[in-house]
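Sat 14:20. Reprocessing the chain from the morning session after the first attempt stalled halfway. Input below, unchanged.
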Amino acid sequence: MEYLDSKFIVSAYSLKQLPDDNLPEIAFAGRSNVGKSSLLNVLLNRKNFVKVSARPGKTQALNFFLVEDNRYFVDLPGYGYAKVSKDLRGSWAKLVTSYLETRKQLRCVVVIMDIRHEAKLLDAQLLQLLRVLHIPFVGVYTKADKLSGNGREKNSKLLDASHVLTINERVVFSAKTKMGRDLLLEKLSSAI
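Finished this time. Tokens:
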């Protein structure tokens, strides 16, 4: 599936600001600077549509993008390191958790992890929350172009084992080469 039409709709800083049209939603979550915006740009076939930043903590709201007039991609604030106050990070966590726990339109969460790094506690906690809430998810290991084929395979297996993911529950991805794009789009279409 190719997405040819997408537009930014709203940055929601509270649940009251969420769209109320009942279209299915796919949320994108990950640590700060894990490649969330780059992944979204590749999926949507757009350059710099979703703003990419070298500064952690750039995304501060639930950003809704209407795709093909029949679904939303939701860019969640990054978690983990961010040069913002502890209070602001806490308010993001509360907003994201409330969204995950209550949003009926949510069909799937894409949990984005950098393939170059070992498993992180916050990623494990998010995956556990999604399992408890029975929310379907897909793990995406980004920045795959930064490793050799053997390195990708080795690190994927380590992340799989650490997060108890099967090969069918994750995608190895590169925004630079578009590796994994078609497989991820297929999984997201199935989720909707």
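The beta strands are 6-12, 25-30, 62-67, 71-75, 106-114, 137-142, 170-172.
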